[in-house]
Amino acid sequence: ILLPLGAVAGLLLVAAVALATHRRLSLPGEIRLGLKRREFHLHYQPVVDLRTGRCIGAEALLRWRRPEGLPMSPDLFIPAAERSGMIRAITAHVIDNALRDLPALLALQPDFHLGINFSAQDLEADGSITQLLRGLRAMKAPAGSLVVEITERNVTDAKAAAKQIARLHDHGVQVAVDDFGTGHSSLSVLAGLELDILKIDKSFVDAIDAQAAASMVLPHIIDMAKALSLFMIAEGVETETQADYLRERGVQLAQGWLYGKPMPLEDLLDLLRTQGRAWATRGRSMPV
Ligand code: C2E
Ligand code: MG
Ligand code: MG
Ligand code: MG
């Protein structure tokens, strides 16, 4: 039964290695592997004109197809990527894919607007913006066809953000402030930025039906957007009641399950083809 010391050490080592490889990877580790295995792809959620119901654009939303395990919401893996520094690689992938898909969308609808989400780090460093502008220039996309969405949360350094936003603007990229009303930035900070679009957070839209306290704030958000000459996109519109309320108060655009869930590119292209046939005889100019 007595084993030589070397053999015991060897067995222990084998056991340790087996344990380590069986242990689940950390979330950042899984993200890194997922990127390498091309498990991340974009879905697109239609953005519609509230008056006509016409789809005038879409928001690109990242999806993670994990071979084992349940689908994971970007609300979970994006913050993890932000904390671990993986977000730069994620955003590079998002920009790549969005720019790859944009020509097909513009071919069907020349005034299409595609929104992509930026994290704070994408705004702080030059890399993502440079990649975006270089790609746009190469494809000669019309100005305004890309919209970069930033959250109030991401505007930590207002001066630096203002500079980057101006740079996007100079090159014809529109800028939207996402999840408006949920952050902590003061209105004076926002007023100092060259913004084009204000996205009204879903919580305020939900409050319309619930007649909750947040619904009393909504008219003020709308007034502020009007005072700053910002276009409005209401997020998470699920009912006709909500759509009616928003339309009556002059909110121009909306996205939500009432109009369409995030979908693969092919489905969005089908939607645009169908819509193109329906609108062929009318012809009207788009709000954004
Ligand atoms: P977001 O940018 O505010 O995107 C809107 C979210 O609301 C999406 O969730 C969308 O699927 C969801 N949504 C839209 N309409 C409805 C509705 O009618 N009802 C309900 N219940 N939900 C609706 P999703 O796709 O899970 O994304 C969550 C968040 O993750 C996004 O919020 C955004 O902050 C972040 N995210 C997603 N993709 C990216 C990305 O490529 N880069 C970065 N940095 N963040 C991303
Ligand atoms: Mg967004
Ligand atoms: Mg949002
Ligand atoms: Mg959100």
UniProtKB/TrEMBL annotation:
Residues 24-276 form the EAL domain. GO terms for cellular component: plasma membrane. Its EC number is 3.1.4.52. It is a multi-pass membrane protein. It is found in: Cell membrane. GO terms for molecular function: cyclic-guanylate-specific phosphodiesterase activity. It catalyses: 3',3'-c-di-GMP + H2O = 5'-phosphoguanylyl(3'->5')guanosine + H(+). Its main location: membrane. The chain crosses the membrane at residues 1-20. Keywords: c-di-GMP, Cell membrane, Hydrolase, Membrane, Transmembrane, Transmembrane helix. This is cyclic-guanylate-specific phosphodiesterase. The lineage of its organism: Bacteria, Pseudomonadati, Pseudomonadota, Betaproteobacteria, Burkholderiales. The chain holds residues 242 to 529 of 529 of the full protein.
